[in-house]
Amino acid sequence: MPCRTIPLQKTMARILVAYTTKKGSTAGIAEAVASTLQAAGHTADVFEIAKLVSLQGYDAVVIGGPLYMGRMDGSLVKFVQRHEQDLARVPVAGFVVCLAAAAKDPEGMAWATKALHDALAPLQPVVETVFAGKLDPEKLSWFQRWITKNVKSPVGDFRDWAAITIWARDLPGKMKV
Ligand SMILES: Cc1cc2nc3c(=O)[nH]c(=O)nc-3n(C[C@H](O)[C@H](O)[C@H](O)COP(=O)(O)O)c2cc1C
Predict the structure, then answer these.
(1) What is the pLDDT at residue 11?
(2) 17 alpha carbon, distance to own chain's centre
(3) Is residue 144 in contact with ligand 1, taking CB distance under 6 Å?
(4) Which parts of the chain register pLDDT below 50?
(5) Does residue 134 line the site of ligand 1, with CB under 6 A?
(6) Exposed site from 46, 52, 128, 173, fewest CB < 10 Å?
(7) What pLDDT does 9 receive?
């Protein structure tokens, strides 16, 4: 009797998308990443880092946050330090949200890339990227408005949903989950 090869069914992964935000635009990107992973059949949970209790049961983790004054949020750095052992056991991907990407400023984007990389160290993410964010002057304090005006920050919502979806769609392959 001829032997028929039965294709192995691909197991779906449980992926955590953990983010920080001050004004909400990174939350929207984290949700879009999770939705794309869910559409591909994976289980994807989205949590603001401050509300995360445990990393147990996740096969991969995506970590993202915005850049403010050239730095990633301290809570993201602390999250990496606190969970370093668990995070070292799974594939990790990272993204930084900023306006340098909206302004297409190569120096600013290189700075953002380095800030993300340093914040995630000593983890070795399988992929790290920079996404353009959003600046809504109405949501800013007087001081923040003054700063962003001074450095001529672009104003508006520059989040590129197509680019975010493409990046998220490629994640499981890159993370090998
Ligand atoms: C006070 C302030 C400082 C910022 N500093 C930077 C910066 O250094 N580099 C940059 O590219 N974008 C900078 N941004 C833009 C933010 O990264 C962008 O608005 C991002 O989408 C905010 O994310 P959130 O809405 O999740 O907080 C700054 C924005 C503000 C209001």
Answers:
(1) 76
(2) 7
(3) yes
(4) none
(5) yes
(6) 173
(7) 59
Q: Is the CB of 76 inside a 6 Å radius of any atom of ligand 1?
A: no
pLDDT in tens, 22-39: 999 999 999 999 999 999
Q: Where are the domains of the chain?
A: 14-175
14-175 belongs to which homologous superfamily?
A: Flavodoxin domain (3.40.50.360)
Residue with tokens 């794309």: 36
- Judging by beta carbons within 10 Å of its beta carbon (0-12, 13-18, 19+), is residue 82 exposed, middle or buried? middle
Which residue owns the Cα nearest ligand 1 atom 29? 68
38 contacts: CB under 8 Å, gap ≥ 6: 44
Is this prediction's pTM over 0.85?
yes
Provide the strand spans (E) within the chain: 14-19, 43-48, 60-68, 71-72, 92-98, 127-132, 134-135, 156-157
